[in-house]
Each structure stands twice: as C-alpha cells, then as structure tokens.
Amino acid sequence: MRSSYSEEDVTILLKDITGMVEPLPSEVREKLIQSGTHYCEMLPLEYRPGEKYFALYREALRKYSAETGRAAAVAAEKIKKRYGSNIVLVSLARAGTPVGIIIKRYLNRKYPFLNVFHYTISIIRGKGIDHNAMKYILERHAASDICFVDGWTGKGAILDTLKRELSAYPGVSSELAVLADPANITSLSGTKSDFLIPSSCLNSTVSGLMSRTFLRPDIIGENDFHGAAYYGELEKEDLSAEFIDTVMNTIDFTENYEISDSESCKVTGLDEVKKIQKDFSVGDINLVKPGIGETTRVLLRRVPWKILVSDPDDKDYLAHIFRLAEEKNVEVIKYPMVRYRACGIIKKLADT
Q1: Which of 106, 174, 207, 313 could bond 94 through an S-S bridge, CB–CB 3.0 to 4.6 Å?
Q2: Is 12 helix (H, G, I), strand (E, B) or coil?
Q3: What is the pTM (predicted TM-score) of this model?
Q4: Distance between the two ends of the chain, CA-based, in angstroms?
C-alpha cells in the first residue's frame, strides 16, 4: 500500500483501504469496542495536535532522539549477534515500522556485508497475525532469518499473541526486538527503561501516514493482507522521514554499543498491571495500558479515565502526557510503579 516511506526502507504488506472506511471519533469507537466490536473493525479519526502539543513533540525529539538512537543501535547489535549475516526484519505495523527502518539503516551502514530485508505486517490482539503476509515472506526467506520488531512493550499482550500465532510456523522465532522493554519480557531490547520514544507522541504523521491496521471480512478478503488507510490529507504535516533522519544523525557508528543487560529487577510489567487493576477496581485488564507509549496512545485515540504517573515532577519524560491530560480534562494521579513511568486507564463506557 501507499506510505510516505521509501521502498528501500520497507516493503509494506498491507491492503490499501483508503476511502473505504469512515473514521470514527474516540468516544464512538470506545463505546463500540466495550460493547463487543473489535477495534480492528474500525478506523480512528486521527488526532490533530495543536501548536502547543507540536512544540512538546519537537522538544521530545530534541531531548530523546539520542536515547532512541542508542536503544536502536543496541537492539540492532543484539539482532546481528543472534541472526548472523541474513536478517529479515518484520516490523509490526504501525509503531514498529519506523523502528524497523532505523534498525535496518543502522545495520546496512555499519555492516554493509549483511543481507538485511525489512517488511511491515499486521498483528492484531485477539485476532492474530496476517497469515497471507507471513506466507509472502516465507516464500522468499528462510524461517530462521525472521526477526519481529516493535517499538516498545506495554504489558506483553502483543508478544503473547505473537507466540501463539507462530506455533504454526516452525523455525520462526517468537522473540520480539524493541527499543524499550519496561515489561521485562524480551532479551532483544535496546533498554529496559520506560523512556520517551518521540514517535509515540504522534500517530500517522510519524508512521508513514498509515492508519492503524484493519480487519473486517466485508473489506478484507480471504487472500488479502490486513488493511490500512493512507492519510493523504496530512502530507504537509508528515514528519516520518524527519524523525528517522534525526534519530540516525545521533548514532555514532564508531562507538561499540554495549549489548549486555544489567537488569536486576525481576518484577515484570504484568505484575504491576495486575496490581493497578486491583487497586483501581478495573474489571478488564485490557483497559490498563502501562508505559509512556501506551499511555500516550490512550490519550490520543481512546477515552481515558485516569492517568497514573510514578513522579508528577517528571516534566522531562511526561510533559506531553500532562499536556494531553490537561486538554482532555483527565485526572493525573501519583502512583508508585517500578517498571513504568506512566500508565493510562481507559474509561469504562459500556455495561457489557
């Protein structure tokens, strides 16, 4: 399908459904989701941030592009060590796509003798992986060369889905490479810290102008890839290439990026999420979205109930979250967390 990325950076295995699905506002979508409609059967109306929020994104990019670059370099070195000379990066659309591009560019530049390919495909919690996309990749590459890539881990739901789905594909590793792994569930991570990846602050305008992925039988046929729409009306606001270039420019290719983990805390993200669920009497664990990236998503495209932060004075990492919470009149509560700096709780709207 269309995107604002170059074909050298990524092959996008998605069906273009632009104009075929009417995007819905967050409040409407949230009621439908909580009444039983799966989120992948709808498209969200894209949040268009104002000047103040864009200024926060710019500040986040200035402050954290180097940390993002370092995490990408560390993750890339781990991938190289694990996979060797033939690497097929398969990023999970859409948050994984810019991360996969950065890792591919890093590997191509530092190790030009490697064979590195990059695809982006859809995986949907509760529905599964795009089996047509997997068939396409496996017809062209060895199963043992495939490495899945995403932006960060929340509580681990996508990794659980990935592991279940890949039981059908012998030889394909279910390990997930990410920049940030606050959930403490993968060894192929750039860091275990819940840091601010600037791309998590925005939606399609840092994701090649692609929507989140879509799956509904009246539009996605049996032999189709999962779908996504292209937001051509946002082309003048597109920051996808700028984000990747900015991060790449922070990487020192003469540096030996340390790839050993010094993680001593054995608490997992799921442990913390279960405690939050209990403390705030949340019936459905899927309404608890931990981590800076997931909290940002809650504020951008869901209907938030409360935002938890481990340090209310942490303006460095959380300024954009405070700004969005203020815009949407959402309560921000100090709550002690070990693995996460922030957590969003989605408002319960439906009785079912």
Answers
A1: 207
A2: strand
A3: 0.92
A4: 36
